[in-house]
Write a structure and sequence with these properties.
13 helices, mainly alpha, 269 residues, globular
Length: 269
């Protein structure tokens, strides 16, 4: 009996020391912590669901029609943009900053967890919330606003899958410029404002002047939203899709490289 118990205990301990076991344990702990943080939870869950409907009232349907767009398609990409920005990016800025200031990240690095496991595990709750929201708002807009089914669903999925790691990496990078949890939210504002105004979350690039649109195409989140909107409407050509994917991948690589070089694992003294 004792031998069997010892064997089972040893097996359980070994399972927890694997990369997958450590990652699962960290992700479970993060779900518990984010559930206790009412401010972060409110930002992640409710803000992305409310903002798109507020934005829809300011959109000129005549301008959208002239650009070959309809309100449903634009609302889907806007709602997904707000989910990525608030459920993933903004909430993770608070999470990373909070864990750093509480010395959680520093303690985790002294154990078996690798840097990528620590940052990825902390991001799991926000990523899950973001994915659920993206799916929910897409379904709601499809039926409520008569957006119809996506013409190229693979591009829509690819846009979301590229937007999520980009927002995670940018969130980690943003904490470099903050000294506290409160200042982290201030540091996140430029990315939020630039993405909402210039990446097509509030105003589609199709109705902007050509020169301004060309500049906005190079912003971090623009490519992901271009894939979502173009994939839904079927208006994105093969060359345009490849260009958007290349820009998104380039931004991800740059952000990940910057995080590897600059990310702070403990508070500034």
């Amino acid at each position: 009996m004792s031998t069997g118990t010892a064997t089972a205990t040893g097996t359980g301990t070994a399972a927890r020391t694997t990369s997958a076991g450590r990652f699962k344990a960290l992700a479970r702990a993060e779900f518990t912590l984010i559930g206790r943080s009412k401010g972060v939870l409110f930002t992640a869950v409710f803000v992305p669901l409310v903002l798109p409907f507020s934005v829809s009232r300011t959109m000129d349907k005549g301008d959208l029609k002239g650009a070959g767009l309809n309100l449903g398609t634009v609302m889907i990409s806007s709602a997904i943009a707000f989910s990525l920005l608030f459920a993933v990016y903004s909430s993770l800025v608070s999470v990373y900053a909070s864990r750093r200031e509480e010395l959680v990240l520093k303690r985790l690095r002294t154990g078996e967890l690798r840097d990528l496991e620590i940052l990825s595990g902390a991001a799991v709750p926000s990523v899950v919330i973001g994915l659920v929201q993206c799916t929910a708002v897409a379904v709601v807009c499809t039926f409520a606003l008569d957006a119809g089914a996506p013409e190229a669903p693979q591009l829509v999925v690819l846009g979301v899958l590229l937007g999520i790691p980009l927002c995670v990496a940018l969130a980690a990078l943003t904490t470099v410029f903050s000294r506290s949890v409160e200042s982290a939210q201030v540091a996140a504002m430029p990315m939020l404002l630039v993405s909402m105004i210039g990446s097509g979350a509030v105003v589609p690039l199709e109705i902007l002047p050509d020169k301004m649109a060309a500049v906005c195409e190079l912003l971090p989140l623009t490519s992901a939203l271009t894939l979502v909107r173009g994939g839904w409407s079927g208006s994105l050509s093969g060359g345009e899709a490849v260009k958007a994917i290349a820009i998104a991948v380039a931004w991800i690589l740059v952000a990940v490289f910057a995080v590897q070089k600059r990310f702070r694992w403990e508070p500034r003294r």
